[in-house]
Amino acid sequence: MAETLMHFEPYKAAKNEEYMNAKQLAHFRKVLETWKDDLSQDINATLLSMQDEQTVFADPNDRATQESDMALELRNRDRERKLIKKINETIARIDSGDYGYCESCGVEIGLERLQARPTATLCIDCKTLEEIRERQVAR
Fold this sequence. Notes:
Largest sheet: none
Number of strands: 0
Shape: elongated
Structural class: mainly alpha
């Protein structure tokens, strides 16, 4: 994530610029679509390399290492697949006009938070409360 997001200059809003105007939405759409494309390419490259690396090792330790590496790679790709789904949902929020506003309380999420986490759906206050609740339930 960080690599893709570093390719983009942070959006600098002009003084008195309207929140989530067309320029801002276009910026975040481009960030999200580029991020999604990068993830898709990584997934495809992994699938191709896994197909090429189908080697049968006589040594059980080598075979176990290969299986462990593949399992880790598949877990990472599954996380990326879920992230692509979240990116698609975020792009749908841009299309519907809901992007940049907290799903819980409706306030502005903020450009800085969205620049750091373009898929954010909660403002920092609601996210903090959610994390506190999660910790309390986990105990």
